[in-house]
Amino acid sequence: MSPTEPPAWITGLDDDDLAFAKRFLLASGSMKEVACEYGVSYPTVRLRLDRLIQKIRLADQTGDDPYIDLIKRLAVDDKLSLDTARMLIDAYRRQHAQPPAPAQTPQS
User: Fold this and answer.
1) Rounded Cα distance, 92 and 104, in Å
2) What is the pLDDT of residues 37-90, one digit of tens each?
3) What angle do CA 13, 82, 76 make, to 5 degrees?
4) What is the DSSP string of 40-80?
């Protein structure tokens, strides 16, 4: 990462996430204050913060497979259920697994 290039975890956030993070920081991490600013309940802010944390962790854990990373991001963004994401990833991994080597038969 160069000094002019933002870290990957920041580039993975959308504008709403960045605005929320800014408000959270300016409120010195007070979820109660952020809840008042947004006009929502404390548990709603907690849920939003938890999802933001998941996105940041996911950005730090990106693997070698962009498809799996996409499925994980969609699940974190609530565009896919976690169960659906797991099923898609499992099916994808099964489909892209190396086929077992054919059994060798003894020659007569």
Assistant:
1) 28
2) 999 999 999 999 998 988 888 777 767 788 888 888 888 778 888 789 889 988
3) 5
4) --HHHHHHHHHHHHHHHHHHHT--S-HHHHHHHHHHHTTSS
Six-digit token string for 33: 């204050």
Long-range contacts of 8-17 (CB under 8 A, 24+ apart): 8/59, 8/60, 8/62, 9/55, 9/56, 9/59, 9/60, 11/59, 12/55, 12/56, 12/58, 12/59, 12/73, 13/52, 13/55, 13/56, 17/52, 17/55
Cα(18)–Cα(11) distance, rounded to whole angstroms?
A: 10
> How far, in whole angstroms, is CA 86 from its chain's centroid?
13
Instruction: Please state, in angstroms and rounded to a whole number, the distance separating the CA atoms of residues 43 and 71.
Output: 26
d(CA 49, CA 61): 18
pTM of the model: 0.64
